[in-house]
Input
Amino acid sequence: MTLIPSNPSPPSPSAALPFQTWTWRGFPICYQQQGEAGPAVVLVHGFGASCGHWRKNIPDLATSCRVYAIDLIGFGYSAKPTPGEAIAYTFETWSQQLADFCREIVGGPAFFVGNSIGCIAIMQAAVDHPELAQGIVAINCSLRLLHDRKRSLKPWHQRIGPPIAQKVLSVKWIAQFFFNRLATPKTVRSILLQAYRKADAVTDELVEIILGPSRDIGAVDVFVAFTRYSQGPLPEDLLPLLPCRALLLWGSEDPWEPLNLGQEFAKIPTVDQFIPLPGLGHCPQDEAPEVVNPIVLDWILGKQRESKGLA
Output
């Protein structure tokens, strides 16, 4: 089992906000917090990202909310224990982590805001722990298009590729070689330029936010564990079960999670609004915070007023 230091000091551009450590199941978990009053908001990153990915959102939301950005176990500057020994890297694990974080650090219920796979984690937390979920904001939710159930509906020649790749990556030296080729500034920048539509948003600062945690011991094993995780819940499983209302935002130019597929979620009764964001990619909260922040803040404060009977 491998751990990061209990007091992480990542070389992050969001260092103006101190990194704090919370111990969960014996493992150090990294998070940031800003804001002293208002509803609690918990921000959850996507695959390969961290709380630093919310650096452009935290200050604006903190003007009216108590904002927390957390690194899921296995990601960012949180611990990366060996998969299967003490931690299974599943949405149920992250759901429990978020619930315990709300109870022990936040001090009660919160609005959950997620991006990409972070959306699945927050939906699972809301379903598993309904007393802690005041609302869900999902930004370009992962559709999990490589999930076993979705692959089973494809022609056979489209089904065989992912399992073969997963099997190959289970060979440790191959996984290490592949990861080393992937975890370079040039490759990370190239991937981000696919995900983002505004090239000027892909800065050296952002590249380091993504790349920094990949240098931790254990990062390769977590990467392999997640790339082999093609089971568990789909968003269409969880959205109808939510105990609270949901706001869905979607960058219309997302190359990985197509807008036309995401728009189907607007038909689910728990979804309050589905708002396309023209010209933006997979991470609109970072690409255009001036667009996303007001929408998220207005919706959260509106829901808060409704819950108090003030709407």
About this structure: The radius of gyration is 18 Å. Residues 91 and 121 are 5 Å apart (CA to CA). Confidence is low (pLDDT under 50) at residues 1-15.
